[in-house]
Amino acid sequence: MKILVVDDSRVMRQIVIRTLRQSGYAGHDVVEAENGLQAVEMVATEKPDLVLSDWNMPEMSGIDALARLRASGSQVPFGFVTSEGSEEMRARAAAAGALFLIAKPFTPELFDEALSAVLPRA
């Protein structure tokens, strides 16, 4: 399966990918995008099985990317990995169609809890 990791920080993308491995999801293909606009384009070209996206990014935010994907008919599983962990943001993410929101700082256990229902271990 393929996972699209979206964050404007290369370091944070690498931390997310490392945490995926630590939580037992090491065998999946991972592709990366630097912002929401690139993520929308890559969903069309790469056809990932899951998108893990930051919320705040230049060009297009994660929530705007999710809205654009859903408006285009894409039902790709989508979750946020973000510093925006308030109940209001969680409700906004769920209303837009996100499956989960993992707040930073996160642990491999939090990743496993969120991903176990969405993604098989590789």
UniProtKB/TrEMBL annotation:
Q: Which residues carry this modification: 4-aspartylphosphate?
A: 54
Entry superkingdom:
Bacteria
**Keyword Phosphoprotein assigned:** yes
Q: Cite the PANTHER family for this sequence.
A: TWO-COMPONENT RESPONSE REGULATOR (PTHR43228), TWO-COMPONENT RESPONSE REGULATOR ARR22 (PTHR43228:SF1)
Short name of one Pfam family for this protein?
Response_reg
Question: Which positions are tagged coiled coil?
Answer: none
Organism placement in taxonomy? Bacteria, Bacillati, Actinomycetota, Actinomycetes, Propionibacteriales
Sorted alphabetically, which InterPro entries does this protein's record hold?
Answer: CheY-like_superfamily (IPR011006), Sig_transdc_resp-reg_receiver (IPR001789), ST_Response_Regulator (IPR052048)
Sorted alphabetically, the keyword list is: Phosphoprotein
Gene Ontology BP annotations: phosphorelay signal transduction system
List the protein's name.
Answer: Response regulator
Instruction: Write down the species.
Output: Nocardioides daphniae
Residues covered by the Response regulatory domain: 2-119
